[in-house]
Automatic annotation (TrEMBL), chain A:
<feature type="compositionally biased region" description="Polar residues">
    <location>
        <begin position="37"/>
        <end position="51"/>
    </location>
</feature>
<dbReference type="GO" id="GO:0003735">
    <property type="term" value="F:structural constituent of ribosome"/>
</dbReference>
<dbReference type="GO" id="GO:0032543">
    <property type="term" value="P:mitochondrial translation"/>
</dbReference>
<keyword id="KW-0687">Ribonucleoprotein</keyword>
<comment type="similarity">
    <text>Belongs to the universal ribosomal protein uL29 family.</text>
</comment>
<feature type="region of interest" description="Disordered">
    <location>
        <begin position="19"/>
        <end position="68"/>
    </location>
</feature>
<feature type="compositionally biased region" description="Basic and acidic residues">
    <location>
        <begin position="242"/>
        <end position="254"/>
    </location>
</feature>
<dbReference type="Pfam" id="PF06984">
    <property type="entry name" value="MRP-L47"/>
</dbReference>
<feature type="compositionally biased region" description="Basic and acidic residues">
    <location>
        <begin position="52"/>
        <end position="62"/>
    </location>
</feature>
UniProtKB/TrEMBL annotation, chain B:
<keyword id="KW-0687">Ribonucleoprotein</keyword>
<dbReference type="InterPro" id="IPR012678">
    <property type="entry name" value="Ribosomal_uL23/eL15/eS24_sf"/>
</dbReference>
<comment type="similarity">
    <text>Belongs to the universal ribosomal protein uL23 family.</text>
</comment>
<dbReference type="Pfam" id="PF00276">
    <property type="entry name" value="Ribosomal_L23"/>
</dbReference>
<keyword id="KW-0689">Ribosomal protein</keyword>
<dbReference type="GO" id="GO:0032543">
    <property type="term" value="P:mitochondrial translation"/>
</dbReference>
<protein>
    <recommendedName>
        <fullName>Large ribosomal subunit protein uL23m</fullName>
    </recommendedName>
</protein>
<dbReference type="GO" id="GO:0003735">
    <property type="term" value="F:structural constituent of ribosome"/>
</dbReference>
<feature type="region of interest" description="Disordered">
    <location>
        <begin position="108"/>
        <end position="156"/>
    </location>
</feature>
Length: 275, 186
């Protein structure tokens, strides 16, 4: 039956064009009342017969059965039927990425998505806390952001490597990530340490008369060191005089003896060992 | 960074995060047809769209036009120690629409792959992959799938072709022996 296929399709085509023609069943079934020569302006008694003659549809959806992706074709007759319609061209636009695009920071190089294991293992050690103690907050903050971006880069490369099923290179990447993590840990350590030192310094400053923590005016007003020195000398000389006087008094024979009951009671209570 | 902040087309958040600890992974588009104006990132679950937009602008100077997010639930697995069924935490992906298109660098070809895998490793990895797939199928269908079931062997294909030729008359059957005259066709 190989030869019958084209015949069948041609018959189908003829039938299809016939059904699309103007002389459809519905137009023939229109109710006609009276003679054709005098058209009546009255409405027909019932429209049921004409509505019955319509193409049966399940619902009023005009587009039922039409699909743009399943090649169902158009349902009704279209003006473009029989004409060669343009087909979409196989056109792939050439896109050039900006060399200064910010997303390049997710990669180590612009020509390849992942570094080779040799390139990945070329890294130094992490920063240690002792080195970071001498750095300012601005430096530490900058270093933190360098670490954040490096971790993003490592994560991107790791995902790409696992997608390509490259098992070699994972260890080098892991070691690198660990070093970055250690640096971040050291930064936090340094900042915590610095915070504790600041807390202690504040507690000291609250007691220091030279430091004003009210936040108004100069916070530090140092006392005159020369003034302090003279004061100290004056105090020392006074103390020396007092000592000499005591010596002089001690040289006299102690005739009267101290009565222990005359001592103040509070001193006794303080002197007694606490239980 | 100041230039970017000056040219930013939207109002950014005011909360300052000094020491962020998030890891953002840039993902290669899974479909070939994904336009270069879109970039997908794997982000922490607590990230929201505004976070993503400001993060890219401030840390990477990448201006975005829109963000779409999706939370992917992970398949369940049985914990080998507790024997309980567990589900790993979901993964959040965010796709941003870029102001400037970005095309991913090419992946290494077969020759370049040798920088990672020598021939032996490549073979081992492929074998492992095959076994993993077989195991996955076994768990799914409940029966082991072997090569004989999976695809026709070359022998079988050849045999089928020979049988077809013989039936259609393209090839004649011959066992290369002289037939006994008793059996000659009349």
């Amino acid at each position: 039956m190989a030869a019958s296929a084209p015949i069948r399709s041609s018959i189908e085509r003829v039938l299809r064009t016939a059904s699309r023609g103007p002389a459809t069943a519905s137009s023939l079934n229109l109710p006609v009342r009276g003679s054709l020569s005098c058209p009546s302006n009255t409405a027909s008694f019932s429209t049921t017969s004409s509505l019955d003659a319509r193409r049966p549809t399940r619902d009023n959806n005009r587009l039922r059965g039409l699909s743009s992706i399943h090649r169902s074709g158009t349902k009704g007759r279209m003006a473009v039927d029989g004409f060669a319609t343009p087909r979409p061209a196989a056109y792939q636009p050439k896109i050039t990425t900006d060399p200064n695009h910010g997303l390049w920071d997710f990669f180590y190089a612009k020509d390849k998505a992942i570094p080779t294991p040799d390139e990945d293992s070329q890294h130094g050690r992490a920063w240690i806390v002792e080195e970071l103690r001498h750095k300012s907050w601005e430096d530490l903050h900058r270093l933190w952001w360098v670490c954040v971006k490096e971790r993003n880069r490592i994560a991107t490369a790791t995902r790409e490597r696992s997608r390509l099923k490259l098992q070699v290179g994972m260890d080098a990447s892991k070691t690198r990530n660990y070093e970055v993590w250690k640096t971040m840990k050291a930064i936090k350590h340094t900042l915590t340490e610095r915070y504790y030192v600041w807390e202690d310094a504040r507690a000291l400053a609250e007691k220091d008369p030279e430091i004003d923590l009210s936040g108004e005016g100069n916070p530090y007003t140092p006392g005159d060191y020369l003034e302090q020195d003279t004061e100290r000398l004056a105090l020392e000389s006074e103390a020396a005089v007092a000592r000499e006087q005591e010596k002089f008094m001690e040289e006299k024979p102690a005739t009267e003896t101290m009565d222990p009951s005359s001592l103040p009671k509070t001193e006794q209570a303080q002197g007694s060992p606490r239980v | 960074m100041a230039a970017v902040a000056a040219s930013k087309p939207f109002k950014t958040g005011l909360k300052q995060v000094f020491l962020p600890n998030h890891v953002i992974t840039f993902c290669r588009p899974s479909r070939q047809a994904t336009p270069p104006q879109f970039a997908t990132f794997k982000v922490p679950l607590h990230f929201n769209k505004l976070d993503m937009r400001d993060y890219l602008l401030h840390a990477y100077s990448v201006a975005t036009l829109g963000v779409r997010s999706a939370v992917m639930r992970q398949p369940i697995f049985r914990n080998p120690i507790t024997r309980r069924v567990q589900r790993p935490p979901a993964i959040k992906y965010m796709t941003v629409e870029l102001q400037k298109p970005f095309v991913w660098p090419k992946e290494p070809n077969k020759e370049e792959r040798k920088q990672w895998h020598d021939e032996q490793t490549e073979k081992r990895v492929q074998l492992q992959e095959k076994q993993d797939q077989a195991m996955e199928k076994y768990q799914k269908h409940g029966r082991l799938q072997n090569d004989a079931v999976e695809k026709r062997s070359a022998n079988r294909t050849q045999l089928a072709k020979q049988a077809k030729d013989l039936l259609s008359g393209a090839a004649k059957w011959d066992n290369r022996r002289d037939l006994d005259p008793k059996w000659t066709e009349s």
